[in-house]
């Protein structure tokens, strides 16, 4: 096997896991012509990206539902995300302090806020920071911590500690899935713990999720949001999944991808 660049090598490791199964670190090291420590770093990176998972005993395997990267998700349901973002932006009043999660729909909301005035935005997501970095009327607070490369958002004890010093008028969360009886779904327990903590610091909580995520349960880490919260989705969401959430007391707002008004 010829030497390969780091990204190509990691892609090939995933391919091997899919086809022939992974061998030992030493055998991968010899096959790729790199050191065992390099292979271990590759495996750690693949784990952080949600493409591999450690099993009992330290072995590696493909995750049942690989977590898509932020770049992969950017083009999904573009019009629906934009309509959801416009509805959410219309709820925000001048002078408020809001908290933005990570994710592509929340990024779309951050983009809508670029021309806001007298607004304070705290965020755990790099995409929102990028959108608002040069917004003159917006004061931006970054809740730093440990960066998850696959989601481009911060998690961990430093992020959680920063939350203890702030409260918010509104919180806007992203999610990988939302389902009645479970709450909101993520690939990592650090994410779900953080979302629960964020929800406790905000007066109003909104979950922004396009239709494909409603009723979806791709991972096994869940956040149960305290108190009342609002799901904002688009009008192609599964009616049965929407009805089940409403039966639990969740306010569900559906917008049209064409123009964004509430249904």
Automatic annotation (TrEMBL):
Domain HTH deoR-type per the UniProt entry, residue ranges: 6-61
Keyword Transcription regulation attributed: yes
- The answer to whether UniProt assigns keyword Transcription to this entry is yes
Arranged from A to Z, the UniProt key words for this protein are: Transcription, Transcription regulation
Which Pfam families has this protein been placed in? DeoRC (PF00455), HTH_DeoR (PF08220)
Q: Name one GO molecular function term.
A: DNA-binding transcription factor activity
Q: Can you name this protein? A: DeoR/GlpR transcriptional regulator
- Organism of origin is Streptomyces hainanensis
């Amino acid at each position: 096997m010829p030497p390969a660049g780091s990204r190509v090598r990691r892609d090939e490791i995933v391919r091997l896991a899919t086809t022939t199964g992974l061998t030992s670190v030493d055998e991968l090291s010899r096959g790729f012509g790199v050191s065992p420590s390099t292979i271990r770093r590759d495996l750690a990176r693949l784990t952080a990206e949600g493409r591999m998972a450690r099993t009992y005993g330290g072995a590696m395997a493909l995750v049942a539902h690989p977590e898509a990267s932020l770049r992969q998700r950017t083009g999904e349901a573009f019009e629906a995300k934009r309509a959801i973002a416009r509805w959410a932006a219309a709820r925000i009043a001048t002078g408020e302090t809001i908290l933005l999660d990570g994710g592509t729909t929340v990024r779309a909301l951050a983009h809508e806020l670029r021309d806001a005035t007298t607004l304070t935005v705290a965020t755990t997501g790099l995409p929102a920071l990028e959108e608002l970095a040069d917004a003159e009327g917006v004061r931006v607070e970054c809740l730093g911590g440990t960066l998850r490369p696959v989601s481009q958002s911060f998690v961990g004890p430093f992020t959680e500690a920063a939350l203890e010093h702030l409260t918010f008028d509104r919180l806007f969360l992203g999610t990988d899935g939302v389902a009645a009886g479970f709450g909101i779904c993520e690939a990592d327990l650090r994410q779900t713990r953080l979302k629960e903590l964020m929800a406790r610091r905000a007066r109003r909580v909104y979950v922004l999720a396009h239709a494909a995520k409603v009723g979806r349960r791709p991972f096994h880490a869940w956040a149960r949001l305290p108190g009342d919260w609002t799901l904002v989705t688009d009008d192609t969401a599964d009616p049965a999944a929407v009805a089940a959430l409403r039966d639990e007391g969740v306010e569900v707002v559906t917008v049209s991808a064409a123009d964004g008004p509430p249904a």
